[in-house]
Specification:
The protein has about 600 residues and is mostly helical. Helix content is about 75%, strand content about 5%. It has three domains: about 60-345, no CATH class; about 400-430; about 435-570, 2-Layer Sandwich (Alpha-Beta Plaits), CATH 3.30.70. A five-stranded mixed β-sheet has the order 2-3-1-6-7. A two-stranded antiparallel ribbon has the order 4-5. The longest helix is centred in the middle third of the chain and has 70 residues, at about 320-390. Keywords: Membrane, Nucleotidyltransferase, Transferase, Transmembrane, Transmembrane helix.
C-alpha cells in the first residue's frame, strides 16, 4: 500500500507539472516543457533512490532502536531486582537486632543503618529514573517505600522496649510487616516486567528468567524469616510458621526446576557454572541449618543456634542467586550491545553506500543536464527571443562542439531576423502616421482599440473627439493650403497643451481623437475645455497673410472603470460631439453614465 501511494504521488506531481507547462506563457511553452520534464524525471529517479534507501535503512534503524531499548530495559530490570535484594538483605540485621542477644547492638545496629541507607538510596535512584522516562508506576514505587518506612517504625518501636519481654508472636508480626512490603514490591516488579515484555517481546524470555531467579532468592530468604522468631524467643516453632517454611521450600524447588530449563535454553557457560553452585550451596548446604532448626524445635528444649549464628550461616548461601542473576543480565546486556553495535555499523555502511550512489546518480544527471538539456533549452529560448524581438543571452560558454555550431547558426538567423524586423517597423511607421501633422492616424488608433477594450475594472480611461468648426468654409475661403496650415497648427496646440497626458490621433479630415489613460470623465472635460480656450485664442495666418480665427467642438466619454468595448466608448464620445455641434459648436460636451 505504501509503494502504491508513492507511485500515485509521482503521478500527481507529473500531472501538476504538465498543467503548469500548459498554463505557462506561450512564448516559453516548449522551454518550460523540457525543463519540467527534466525536473520530473530527476524527481522520479531521486525518489526511487530514496525509496530503495528507506527500504534498507528503516529495518536497520529499527534494529538499532530495539537493541538500544533492550539495553535500557535490562538495566531498568537490574535496578528493580537489586532493590528487591537490598530489601531482603535488610531483614537479616533487623532479625538479629530484635533478638535477645545483648552483644549484637553495636555491630548489627551499624549494619542495619547501612542497609537501610542503601535501600533508601536505591529507592531514590529508581524514582528519579522513572521521573525521566515517565513510567506510570512512579506512585506505586513511592507507596512501597512509604510502607517500608512504616514497617521500620513498627520494628524500631518493638526493639525499643525490653527485649526480654518480647514474645515470639510480636517478633513474628514485626518481621511479617517487612515480608508484606517485599511481597507488594515483588507484585509491582512482576507487573512492570509484563509491561516491558509487551513492548519488547524479544526480551520477554530473559526478563521472566531473571524475574524467577529474583523470586527464588526472595522465597529462599523468607524461609529463614519464618524460623528466626522462634530462635529469638527460644520457643518451639509453631505449626503455621513450619507450614509456611516448608511451603516456601517446595516453591523454591519448583521455581528452580523452571530456571534450569531456561538455563539449558540459553546455553551460557557462566549460567551453567552458577547453576552448579546453587545446587551445591543452597539446595544442599543452606537447607541443612533450616532442617536442623525445624527438627530441634520438636526434639529439644533449646536450639543450638542463636539468631545471629543462624543468619550468618544461612545468608551467604543466598549470594549464589545474585551471582546467577548478574551473569544472566550481563549476558543479555552484552548480546544487546553487540546487536546495537552491529546495527550502527550497518547504518553507517548504508549511509555511505547511499551517499555514493546518490552522488553518482546526481553527477550523471547534472552532466546530462549541463551539457545537453540546458544548451537545448537555451537554443529554444533564443529562437523564442528572436520571435519576440527581445535581446538574446550570452551563450558563448557552450563547451561542446555541436552546441557551438548550433549557436553560430543561430547568430546568422538572428541577424537576418533583425534586418527583417527593422524593415517591417519602417513600413509600419509609414502606414500608421499622418503625413501632414505627423500624428498617428486612424489605423494606429484602431491598432490600440484592443487595448482600450481590455481595460480592467477600476482603471480610469477616457476618449476625447474634437472637430475643427467650419473647416470646409476655411478651405473654400482661404484655400486648401491654408486648411493644411490650420490642421498643422491645431496638432501643435494639442501637443503643447496635452504633453504626456494622453495620445493624439488624426482620426480623419478635421477630426482629432485623444486617448487619456488614468483620467476620469471630470479630468477629461477639464483638458478638453483648456484645449477649446487655447484654440479659440490662437492666431493663424493664411497663405495671403490674412488672419484666420478657429474654434473646435469636443465630445468626451469615459470607461468609468467598466469593461466597456472600444465601439461603445467611441459611440459615447461621438454622441457627445454631436450634442456640442447641435448646441452651437465651440463647446465641450460629455456623455454621463445613464444618458441616452
Amino acid at each position: 500500500m505504501k509503494i502504491k501511494g508513492f507511485i500515485d504521488f509521482l503521478c500527481r506531481v507529473k500531472s501538476i507539472l504538465e498543467r503548469k507547462s500548459i498554463r505557462g506563457e506561450v512564448n516559453h511553452g516548449l522551454s518550460k516543457t523540457i525543463r519540467d520534464r527534466l525536473l520530473y524525471y530527476i524527481c522520479v529517479a531521486a525518489s526511487f533512490t530514496l525509496l530503495l534507501a528507506a527500504i534498507i535503512f528503516i529495518p536497520a534503524y529499527k534494529d538499532y532502536k530495539l537493541a538500544t531499548r533492550t539495553v535500557d530495559d535490562i538495566k531498568e530490570f537490574k535496578e528493580l531486582s537489586e532493590l528487591a535484594i537490598l530489601m531482603a538483605r535488610e531483614r537479616a540485621p533487623t532479625a538479629i537486632i530484635m533478638s535477645r542477644e545483648p552483644t549484637v547492638d553495636s555491630l548489627w545496629g551499624t549494619s542495619l543503618k547501612k542497609h537501610r541507607d542503601n535501600v533508601d538510596l536505591a529507592f531514590s535512584n529508581l524514582i528519579e529514573t522513572y521521573k525521566k522516562i515517565g513510567v506510570t508506576y512512579l506512585n506505586e514505587i513511592k507507596s512501597v517505600h512509604s510502607q517500608l518506612i512504616l514497617a521500620r517504625s513498627d520494628i524500631d518501636r518493638e526493639i525499643s522496649i525490653n527485649r526480654s519481654e518480647l514474645k515470639a508472636g510480636d517478633y513474628q508480626k514485626a518481621l511479617h510487616r517487612m515480608l508484606l512490603v517485599a511481597d507488594n514490591y515483588q507484585g509491582y516488579m512482576s507487573d512492570r516486567v509484563i509491561e516491558i515484555a509487551k513492548d519488547n517481546k524479544s526480551l520477554a524470555p530473559t526478563l521472566f528468567h531473571a524475574l524467577m531467579i529474583t523470586d527464588l532468592r526472595e522465597h529462599g530468604g523468607q524461609i529463614a524469616g519464618f524460623l528466626v522468631s522462634s530462635l529469638a524467643a527460644q520457643v518451639p516453632l509453631d505449626i503455621e510458621n513450619e507450614i509456611a517454611a516448608r511451603r516456601n521450600i517446595t516453591r523454591t524447588y519448583e521455581i528452580w526446576k523452571l530456571i534450569q530449563v531456561h538455563c539449558q535454553i540459553f546455553g551460557c557457560q557462566s549460567l551453567v557454572e552458577q547453576t552448579k553452585e546453587i545446587n551445591n550451596r543452597f539446595f544442599s548446604d543452606a537447607f541443612e541449618p533450616i532442617y536442623t532448626v525445624i527438627n530441634e524445635s520438636k526434639s529439644s528444649e533449646r536450639y543450638k543456634w542463636t539468631v545471629s549464628e543462624f543468619v550468618n550461616a544461612f545468608s551467604p548461601m543466598l549470594i549464589s542467586f545474585s551471582k546467577y542473576r548478574d551473569a544472566l543480565l550481563y549476558k543479555a546486556i552484552s548480546d544487546a550491545e553487540l546487536k546495537r553495535t552491529a546495527s550502527i555499523i550497518i547504518l553507517i555502511m548504508l549511509i555511505a553506500i547511499i551517499a555514493i550512489v546518490c552522488f553518482i546518480h546526481f553527477y550523471v544527471v547534472f552532466t546530462i543536464r549541463k551539457d545537453i538539456f540546458i544548451p537545448l533549452i537555451k537554443v529554444n529560448e533564443e529562437v523564442l527571443l528572436l520571435s519576440d524581438d527581445r535581446p538574446s543571452g550570452d551563450y558563448s560558454t557552450f563547451k561542446t562542439k555541436e552546441m557551438k555550431e548550433i549557436w553560430r547558426s543561430m547568430e546568422v538567423l538572428r541577424n537576418k531576423v533583425i534586418e527583417r524586423k527593422e524593415l517591417l517597423g519602417y513600413f509600419r511607421t509609414l502606414s500608421e502616421t499622418d503625413s501632414l501633422t505627423g500624428l498617428p492616424n486612424r489605423r494606429a488608433l484602431e491598432h490600440i482599440a484592443g487595448e482600450i477594450s481590455s481595460v480592467v475594472e477600476g482603471e480610469l480611461f477616457s476618449l476625447v473627439i474634437m472637430d475643427v468648426d467650419f473647416s470646409k468654409g476655411i478651405n473654400d475661403k482661404y484655400g486648401h493650403a491654408t486648411g493644411d496650415i490650420v490642421l498643422r497648427k491645431v496638432a501643435s496646440v494639442i501637443r503643447s497643451v496635452l504633453g504626456d497626458a494622453g495620445i493624439i490621433f488624426r482620426y480623419g479630415g478635421e477630426e482629432f481623437a485623444i486617448v487619456l489613460r488614468g483620467h476620469g470623465l471630470d479630468g477629461a472635460i477639464k483638458i478638453a475645455e483648456k484645449l477649446r480656450i487655447t484654440l479659440e485664442n490662437e492666431i493663424i495666418y493664411s497663405t495671403n497673410n490674412e488672419r484666420v480665427c478657429i474654434t473646435a467642438s469636443f465630445g468626451v466619454a469615459s470607461a468609468k472603470g467598466k469593461k466597456e468595448t472600444w465601439l461603445q466608448l467611441f459611440s459615447n464620445a461621438d454622441k457627445a460631439l454631436y450634442r456640442a455641434k447641435k448646441e452651437g459648436r465651440n463647446r465641450v460636451r460629455a456623455l454621463f453614465e445613464g444618458e441616452q
